[in-house]
Amino acid sequence: MDNKRLRLIRDYITTKVMIAITLSIFILFCFILLFLIWRSSLFLSEYSIVEILLSSRWSPARGEFGLYPIIIGTILVTGIALLIAVPISLLSAIYISEYAPAKLKHFVRPFIDLLAGVPSVVYGLCAFLFIVPLVKDHIAPLFGVQSTGLCIFTASVTLSIMVLPIIISLCVDSFAAVPLPLREASLSVGATRWETVKKVVFRASAPSIISAVILGFGRAFGETIAVNMVVGGVSRVPVSLFDPGQTLASKIISDYSELSSIPIRESALLFMALLLLVVVVAFNVISKIILSKTRRRWSY
Amino acid sequence: MNKRVIEEGVFEILMILSLVFVLGSLIIIISLVLYHGAPAITVEMLTQTSSSRLYTGRGGGILNAIVGSILLAIPATLLAFMVGLTVALFLQSDFTHPQLANSVRFILDILWGTPSIIYGVFCMVIMFILGSTTSLLWGIIALTLLEIPIITRYMDETISMVPHGLKESAYSLGLTKVETAFKIVRKQALPGIIAGVLLGLGRGIGDAASIVFLIGESNSIPSSFDSPTSALPTMIFNLYSQPDPYVRQKAYAAAFILLIIVLIISVASRILTKRLTKHIIK
Questions:
Q1: Which of A52, A100, A103, B149 is most buried, taking the most CB atoms under 10 A from its CB?
Q2: Is B173 exposed, middle or buried (0-12, 13-18, 19+ CB in 10 A)?
Q3: Does the distance separating the beta carbons of B258 and A15 come in below 8 Å?
């Protein structure tokens, strides 16, 4: 067999292997999804979805699995985290890409990347050492509330800091992709720099900003360790932001020992994991639709 | 006119304040870890394994967690790199239809955004079904799953920037598609590939949620793939709120080491990418 035949055979075989590995990504995803659906079907067959989502009692020992407080906790923690993170990260991204001198730009970027690389457990530890006492001694008394510091508010602040670098670096990239002539046109008709940012740069990169925020949401929504360390871990509907709460991901990790115990409890936990995955998939799809719908309108 | 100028000024101040907040939080994180971690770093802490009683033992160090973390993250990153490079090369238009490639990319994006706890829970239930117990191997599997989408997507972005002319000249010299992909494209995209691998390594070594159920807990260095092990992130998570100050010190020391590792990875990624970019064809 000559050398050329051998190379062609090798090409053929390697291509097939590459196809197989690529398809295995699809299979992996479908397998995780179907597996979680299969394992949580026991839970879903014994309790109605309305009952699970609206009942606020969580006591597995008595067979009560109300997810309402956990879902409220998740929404509050994630929502407040984004409320804090989005304006701060947008403003910093604008400053980095539009205002900062080139030197500062190059100086800041590695630090943002480093912040993005800090492991979540270190964020959790720092929040536990710094934000928790701060909330307990200073912020909660400011609002006239008693708090241990382990509360929804602390978790939100922690998450918002974790989400900042992600949104910032994506936004800086998308601002940089806005063509310079668009800005020049705006400036030449007398707009100030801020007006140019507001009316030209923001609009031109709106789809990317939205998808950056959605990505940040996904990170905040699924964050487990850091939230678990500071949220308090109480499955009750919180009355104020300084009450302890619980989120889906953090509930899974604090109850993980039940994974090996009674089938119905394991099934309930896997249902929560399924819920997490479904929301993440849904938001990815929404982000994809927004990006592809707007790409045509925003073509410049 | 005046109002517009004031608005400009107000927002510029707000921007600077935001940036100060962002950089300030990084400084606070680093100084907190330094302040609590640096005094905890002693020779004993770095060279000894944990004492026999994990949560209450006063003696010993965190060597088992350091070694455990490395033994978890390096094989996982290698596995994820092999899968990731293959998939990323395959996703280029030479091999596959752009539509199929885009749907794989979409799946990878979802997997990237999937909370790591889901990989942990998924692997744990599989582990129970197979009748296996917590071990180093399961930790590696979970971390590999976690790192594959990160490494693949990152490599894919840089590989798709390889100029088409370069591939065409390879084809015109008679190279097959696979040879072009693994010999020419790989070399041209090397800086991005290395940055992707290091990004995956950084995520893998710092992630606790995916492995905390799977690796068990051990006070010695794992001897085989079947033995349970400790890791730095899970050690922080398990020990940070222990009442005994000496045990808490271990968590701080682990955080210190972990932050140093992440810092080294980040700096190495920057230096290597810069160095290697010199050798690619522009």
A1: B149
A2: exposed
A3: no
